[in-house]
UniProtKB/TrEMBL annotation:
Function comment: Converts cob(I)alamin to adenosylcobalamin (adenosylcob(III)alamin), a coenzyme for methylmalonyl-CoA mutase, therefore participates in the final step of the vitamin B12 conversion. Generates adenosylcobalamin (AdoCbl) and directly delivers the cofactor to MUT in a transfer that is stimulated by ATP-binding to MMAB and gated by MMAA.
Keyword tags: ATP-binding, Nucleotide-binding, Transferase
Catalysed reactions listed for this entry: cob(I)alamin-[corrinoid adenosyltransferase] + ATP = apo-[corrinoid adenosyltransferase] + adenosylcob(III)alamin + triphosphate
Name of the protein: Corrinoid adenosyltransferase MMAB
Source lineage: Eukaryota, Viridiplantae, Streptophyta, Embryophyta, Marchantiophyta
Quaternary organization: Homotrimer.
Amino acid sequence: MSSIQRYGVSVLRHCTQARMLSSGVLLNRTTELPAFGWNPVSSGTSAVASTEGVYSSWKIFCLKRVEAAQSLVSLQPSLSRSFCSEGKRFKIYTKSGDKGRTSLYDGQRRRKDDPTFEALGDVDELNSALGLAHEYCLQEEILDTAKQIEEIQSTLLEVGSAIAIPLTSLSSAKLSRVKFNADVVSVTEQWIDQMDEVLPPLTGFILPSGGLPASALHIARSVCRRAERRVVYLVANELVEESVGQYLNRLSDYLFTAARYTAFKLGKQETLWSKRMC
């Protein structure tokens, strides 16, 4: 496990301990907390403070670190390699994967061609493709689509989190904390409907075309379809929530519609497919 992964696991472990402190279960283990960079005195809590006071102070301390730890570790453990905290910098390269194996969030070591890492890689590739599409949209001042793409890129980190934490590896209590928010499916559908209202109806098959933003979005759509196919396998084996696959399915529909929408906004002609006469 890399240094950054150990940091994230420590954050989550100590947060669990903090919750237990409130019920007095770990009163004799508060000495562990200063070792993690926190002490009651510097945090505004006296050394002889009540259990509830220690818990509250520790909770505030944790909340400042959990978001970074989850986004950098539990969301994409195979991709996040650098983290700075209180002057300490971890190197980007860890060498832990030189033999073709890497770690999931729960510490499992697996081959890098494991279906879970294949899915994570495709989701990461999709996010990169969307980064390019986003830049093209900004250049052409299609700001509504650019804003939506930013939200999608953030959601894809949550998708990565859902993929990187197999349903079979954690307790139901822990899984509830990282459950994928299926509401994004309906939000994506709303975006599709809004764009579809202004688009001319399709009269045939179109080829990927319509300017740089549209073409980049078509590339992202293709990568999204591949990511969805990877996730279908994981869902079928009860390793990932079904809603993750539903989101990727809807996202590919969004990307197709967004490609058409950006072409329409720029007044670009889409290329219609025509059967070749041999």
